Amino acid sequence: DVQLVESGGGSVLAGGSLRLSCAASGYLYSSYCMGWFRQAAGKEREGIATIDGDGSVIYADSVKGRFTISKDNNKNTLYLQMDNLKPEDSAMYYCAADPSCIASLAPRYNYWGQGTQVTVS
User: Fold this and answer.
1) Strands 33-39 and 116-120, sheet pairing
2) Separation of CA 89 from chain center
3) Model pLDDT for residues 22-70, shown as the tens digit of each residue
4) What is the pLDDT of residue 28?
5) Which of 17, 28, 74, 94 is 20 to 30 A removed from 2 (C-alpha atoms)?
6) Does residue 87 sit in helix, strand or coil?
7) What is the Cα 95 distance to its own chain's centre?
């Protein structure tokens, strides 16, 4: 099984930055697809960035140019650097992992963390 634990959320002023981390444990292979998703109150969960085993990345248009996804396989940790944050970025942020990247930005991954809250004012 795979366990994912997010951290790094918080409150920030518009234009500011945050860096989210997702520590993975269990049977997580470097070939797994990993992604960041977010869900604002009253809205559906949306994918914002994914990274596959080769390091190829996909971003949602809403965050392209502002957010950067990366991973450290030695530390089994996924990151999301968020710059130039906007109030509409406020949401619960989740990391997810899956053996396949077929879901891309769709929230159909097998493994999920518990989420970390980001509030931008």
Assistant:
1) unpaired
2) 13
3) 999 887 788 899 999 999 999 999 999 999 999 999 999 999 999 999 9
4) 76
5) 17
6) helix
7) 4
